[in-house]
Amino acid sequence: MDGVITEWQKLDSSKKYKEAYDVVSHAISNNKHPELYWRKANSCRNLANSLGKNDKQVYKKYIEEGLSACDEGLRIDPESSKCNSWYGIFLNLSSEIEGINKRIENSFKMKNHWKAIKTDPDDFVTLHALGRWCFEVTDLPWIKRKFAATFFGEPPTSTYEEALNYLLDSEKKAPGTIVKNSLYIAKTYHRLKNYDLAKHYCHKVLEFTEDDLDTEEAKKEASELLKKL
């Protein structure tokens, strides 16, 4: 399995996402191991972001497949920190497709899946995902919180300050790596009325040059936010 993981890492680092996906998918057919399942989920995320840029059905396909891969990994090892982390990430991505009511429902599930950060405090991907989760939970409209309390029980709580702490920590660990990390830092500073820093991070978003869905969406949102600053 070590050889497969090494090959996957090389392909992933080279942004050969389809080849990385093929390698790990083939390996899983012979060895159903959590370390392979979360890597497949990672590849699904990258393919959704690249191949799904102009095709919503392709995007949805890879999000569903990534969520399924995490689920399979957790069935084998419920304590796998990486499978838990990526399951939380894919729950969030899934809720973005299905709307705010699904986001509310998934927020209850997601809070139990951020285990990776306890075992690997340098995991900047999980730090970013946790920061986004804190932001979304805090940003939930009052009427939707009331809806959640009625149908699901009292929803999770957080603060913009907590969200910012995770997002800035992610940025510190991997500066300029995740475009939506810069975007969410800007959005959080905006909510906290620190408009100068919100503007600063909006401009950071606009400096990204990748041709993928995340970058396209983040630049659009940052440009809209700049109009308010």
From TrEMBL:
Database matches in PANTHER family: REGULATOR OF MICROTUBULE DYNAMICS PROTEIN, REGULATOR OF MICROTUBULE DYNAMICS PROTEIN 1
UniProt keywords, alphabetically: Cytoplasm, Cytoskeleton, Repeat, TPR repeat
A Pfam family this chain is assigned to: RMD1-3
Principal subcellular localization: cytoplasm
Subunit structure: Interacts with microtubules.
Keyword set includes DNA-binding: no
Listed GO MF terms: microtubule binding
One GO term describing the cellular component: mitochondrion
Official protein name in the record: Regulator of microtubule dynamics protein 1
Protein origin, superkingdom: Eukaryota
Entries under InterPro entries matching the protein: RMD1-3_a_helical_rpt, TPR-like_helical_dom_sf
Cellular location(s): Cytoplasm, Cytoskeleton
Source organism per UniProt: Schistosoma mansoni (Blood fluke)
Keyword Repeat: yes
